[in-house]
Amino acid sequence: MRALNRRSFLGAACAGGLATTFAPSLSFARASTDRRFVFVLLRGAMDGLHAIVPAGDPHYRAARGSLAYAANDLTRLDGMFGLAPGLSPLAASYRSGELLPVQGLAIPYRTRSHFDAQSILETGLDKPVGAASGWLNRTLEVLGGASSQGIAVGGPLPLSMQGRVPVATWAPSALRSGNEAFIDDLSQLYNLDPVLADPFTAALTLQEQAMDMDAGGTSKRGLAQFEQLFAATGRFLNAADGARIASLEFSGWDTHVGQGLANGTLDRRLSALATGLLALKSQFSADAWSKTVVVVATEFGRTVATNGSGGTDHGTGGAALLYGGAVRGGRVLADWPGLASNQLFEQRDLRPTFDTRQLLKGVLAAQFDLRAAELDRLVFPDSQGVPALAGLVR
Amino acid sequence: MQIDPRLRALNRFGLGARPGELGQIDPKGWLRAQVQPTAAINPDKSLLTTEAMIDALAAARNTGGMAQDRRQAMRKQGREMAGREVLSALRHAATTQTPFAERLARFWSNHFAISMQGEPLVSHLAGAYEREAIRPHVFGRFEDMTLASAMHPAMLIYLDQTRSIGPNSRAGRKNGRGLNENYARELLELHTLGVDGGYTQDDVRQLALMLTGWTVGGLARGRNGGEPLPFSFADRLHEPGAKILLQRRFDAAGEQEGRRAIAMLCRHPSTARFIATKLVRHFVADRPQQADVDAIAHVFQRTGGDLRAVSLALLERDSAFYGTERKFRTPQDFIIAAARALRVNDFDRATLRALQSMRHAFWSPPSPAGYGDTVQGWADPDSLLRRADLAKALTRRTRGRNTDIGAILAETMEVANPSALVQILDQQPDRNTQLALLLASPDFQWR
């Protein structure tokens, strides 16, 4: 009876027409899109050389020292790169062309400060000050500003999603599961409130979408969170009237100590990431998946050499992953700068060979038909000199 | 809906009614009695002054060991102090007998916002900043509050004033570094005139030049062990020569230039309008009525920014006591009001995490503009469910105490649809769930 109440409430609210801010089924000013985009931020600087491993570089073993993988731990991608053991669940996606690993990119500002670098990556600027909004929110704005289009999953609203367009938020809650009757009763009261009825309905819709696949309920801890949050995100984006741009973030990549090799600290985290990405895909219909691009990025790479604690320190050039049915993958995107000491940036870091914004612009341009002027001025202000990469998306 | 001016006094101007209070107050008299200088002070004697905090940080840093360990020890000390500050501020809000004064303290603290998301020293000093720069002036002069905020290390560091160097100052000529306009811009845009207050980019630059030299004492000594100290004026950073701000010429006068600029800005009619609009939006309606704004701006301008007079003038706005427009409680206000209704006085880390998950942690706005003040910013889907979760968690903490549900219903909230609420209340399986339902109900989210 209780569940019926909630469903009937939802039905009634929908029949009545949802017309305000947070209603998840609003259409928007620009021609409505069925393309999906997910931005996954790995906070703390994921070691790109430990994920998309340049084992074919003649200097790899000497440069990395004790953190060099054994060749047979890796899944070979091409003559240069192999996937870390933790990422091997994605090998099939690579072969089917849905995974595009990227090596040697960096934000446009040389800093080894997490805070400044994350801020730049999220605001889309070329320096750590100057914007109170993020490039994801500005993308939503260019798309027409309908609030139902964006959702931040898992935590507080990240800087990348902050801005003028209201964005939905969702996170699993320990209390919510088993509270169905309580929430049902509340919904009857909220339905009577002219202002709060719509956002409450939207909350229940999101909750319902998440619950249906067991992503709701208790918040998972540690590595299990990846699968839970990715799956929920997939569910939200797959819905015909669901969100179209989602953000997710995971911290814990700042491996200064005991980074480890196969099944070590970092590799287990990479494995959770891979499991998460597959869980995301599992929520999509074939059609929706064919219109989806996920970008996994981090604020910078880490030192090429192992430090004195079996870890790595803050570096410069890093790696990213593009994943999704719309991705033109099955290859590694890199203009490989090399690992010999004279090839490194400041004799210690992977030399960046392109700007993270080029990658992001390339994806957004293709996914949402954004014009160059919109990308150069609005989404990534003052970036006229930073061309979008072509050919990333089918 | 039946409007009760006593409930408006307790909820809209206060921090939430407690059972039993309603019958005891004369709404305007109760509020007016709170307009006195000491009412906005947090009486918690265990909290440290800025200088004592800096000493404690220095002591933690001087424990010996590697540089990285020392820095970590200092950060740990800072985080502990900041945690105590937040819990104390929350406890004070839940228990204060002068909630109108407390609301104003929170309002002004948010107006002159700093943020704990960023520079560690700012986050360590955030509580002290509010207690020293904001609270003493809540019923004082706006100009004094602006000046106190401008001179506090937390603000000087947060908005990069300490990085600003006059290009023609001794230091500027020597190392070729220059102006940082961040603080000057926010002083104009967010603290005084407002974004449409009639200043230009050149005014921003001129004000920044006037403020060069305003810095934090020990920073100049840099890494040679100098600890940051409260405000100092460093003449070698100060831009020489006269400046022109808002078409008025200011002769070269060192530190006095900044003080004179602040004095002028605080008396500017745009400032009166900007502050009045924000106050009316905070206490009366998301979309302020011109008559309300004009009345408050007039008092602000006439009294030269006497915040005692301005606060009293707010209490004369009948639209706040009898109007049908409602104000939506922010997450902080919601938690505090629920705690007051339940008489729960102590908060734990879980409460702080809940505030964080609703994006309303203490002193942590995403930008110098501070937290928003309208329903649009706070009634997002996830937050509404989180309020329901929190209501459940808070009511669990009343176990074993005799909480009068009827009194909470009758004496702490305006109820839009009493029959619907009572009917659903009656269906709840137990007292705790009934209590939680009241606090999570839409009625309780409004004030």
Helix-strand blueprint:
The complex is a heterodimer of chains A (394) and B (447).
Chain A lengths: L1 H14 L20 E7 L9 E2 L6 H5 L10 E2 L5 E2 L7 H5 L3 E8 L7 H10 L11 H8 L7 E4 L14 E3 L9 H11 L6 H16 L11 H15 L6 E6 L14 H18 L3 H4 L2 E7 L19 E6 L30 E2 H13 L3 H8 L15
Parallel strand pairs in A: 1-8, 1-9, 5-11, 6-7, 6-8
Antiparallel strand pairs in A: 2-4, 3-4, 5-10, 9-10
Chain B lengths: L4 H8 L14 H6 L17 H12 L5 H29 L3 H13 L8 H15 L7 H10 L1 H6 L11 H6 L6 H10 L9 H11 L2 E3 L14 E3 L9 E3 L2 E3 L4 H12 L2 H15 L6 H13 L4 H8 L3 H5 L8 H12 L6 H9 L17 H4 L2 H16 L8 H7 L6 H9 L4 H10 L1 H4 L2
Antiparallel strand pairs in B: 1-2, 3-4
Key words describing this protein structure:
heterodimer; A: 394 residues; alpha/beta; Alkaline Phosphatase, subunit A; 8-stranded mixed β-sheet; 3-stranded antiparallel β-sheet; 12 helices; 11 strands; 32% helix; globular; B: 447 residues; mainly alpha; 4 domains; two-stranded antiparallel ribbon; two-stranded antiparallel sheet; 56% helix; 3% strand
